[in-house]
Amino acid sequence: MDSPERTNRTHTVTLIPGDGIGPEVTSAVTALVEAAGAPAGARFAWEPFSAGRESFEKQGEYIPKELYASIGRNRVALKGPVTTPVGGGFRSINVSLRMEFELFANFRPIKNLPGLPTRYPGLDLIILRENTEGEYVGLEHEVVPGVVESLKVITEKGSTRIAQFAFNYARRNGRKKIHAIHKANIMKMSDGLFLRCARRVGEGYPEIAYAEHIIDNTCMQLVLNPYQYDVLLLPNLYGDIVSDLCAAFVGGLGLVPGANLGADCAIFEAVHGSAPDIAGKDLANPTALLQSSILMLRHLGEDAVADRLQTAMEKVYVEKKALTRDVGGASGTKAFAAAVLEHLA
Ligand code: NAI
Predict the structure, then answer these.
(1) Paired strand residues for 232
(2) What's the pLDDT at 333?
(3) How far is the CA of 273 from the centre of ligand 1 (A)?
(4) So what's the architecture of 119-233 in CATH?
(5) Active site residues
(6) 293 contacts 268 by C-beta, under 8 angstroms
(7) What is the best residue among 253, 323, 334 to mutate for testing ligand 1's pocket, by most ligand atoms within 8 Å of CB?
């Protein structure tokens, strides 16, 4: 059989450029994915869609039906950040897509890049966040004026499937330890159920050490000594918050990738948001989305293309000539992307 290196193949991928810095980082990344794939015969057909405010203004829908249909067909998407209004307005596009396609696992690797000095060299953590339950889905309503109720729904099914994902991931990837993070001393029933499910699943994986830490202590422990952790398994909201904390360990939000994974569908996106403070100024670091695209390439079975892109990106960090400002350089989004492209040649 022909190896993937020698056959011509086209991957159709739904593309959501997003808002703020989204279009800048997605255009840099799609060009790099295409350049990395071409010599190996891998082609990419992007199906682009707007979402959020822009889509509403153009088409009267925050998530166009065609976008749902495209992801439904392709089962894979690359997504830029989308601005979500604070304290009102429409529901988060991210939450809606995660719910629609049952993308129950949010996978966020926290790893140092070669050549980039940080306070915690050699860190290699995995954050696995339940992605469809808990406070984060925003089930809220006003009971009477002045009283608002927010529902935190945790189910045995949802908690078991993310725990199974975490233990399977650990087993397949030689990870040694899982910490389930919780607040079950206060949220006795909801976080208590999350923990019971994790413990039960963990019994089937005796080679993987299992421990439980309370979320507030975890934040302190992470800052004191993040090396004590290997895989962090968290309910939705805690995972959201701890992801940004851990991003700071390896150089900030400009670097950390993510994947929203379901049984047969995946949306790849950076941890960061639309960064309105730097949007449109050629200041955004495209590395986080680039690393998300590398996760996507591996998901598509394009490991050689992923390796090529990873190596080219790492060379730019080692050389330190074209780094963006968030990581101590003086270059812009385009110059960084051009430097990666040069190393792909
Ligand atoms: P943010 O992640 O957009 O920005 C936080 C800080 O990190 C800012 O100082 C920003 O300049 C910096 N930053 C973020 N990404 C960067 C990059 N690639 N390169 C260099 N610097 C970068 O968080 P913020 O400001 O709290 O949220 C802005 C908007 O993004 C909100 O509407 C929020 O709802 C949305 N958001 C969307 C997400 C998504 O679509 N996946 C995720 C997180 C937030």
Answers:
(1) 127, 179
(2) 98
(3) 3
(4) 3-Layer(aba) Sandwich (3.40)
(5) 136, 183, 216, 240
(6) yes
(7) 253
pLDDT at 2: 43
Give the pair of three-digit tokens for residue 136: 């984060």
* Residue spans of the chain under pLDDT 50: 1-2
CA 339/CA 323 separation, integer angstroms: 9
284 CB under 6 A from ligand 1?
yes
216-251 pLDDT, tens digit each: 999 999 999 999 999 999 999 999 999 999 999 999
Q: Is the CATH number of domain 1-118+251-345 3.40.718.10?
A: yes
Nearest CA to ligand 1 atom 44: 273
Say how many Å lie between the CA of residue 86 and the centre of ligand 1: 13
Helix, strand, or coil (residue 321): coil
| pLDDT in the model for residue 1 | 39
* Sequence ranges of the chain with CATH classification 3.40.50: 119-233
The pTM score is: 0.96
CA distance 194 to 208: 18
| Closest CA relative to residue 250, chosen from 129, 128, 114 | 114
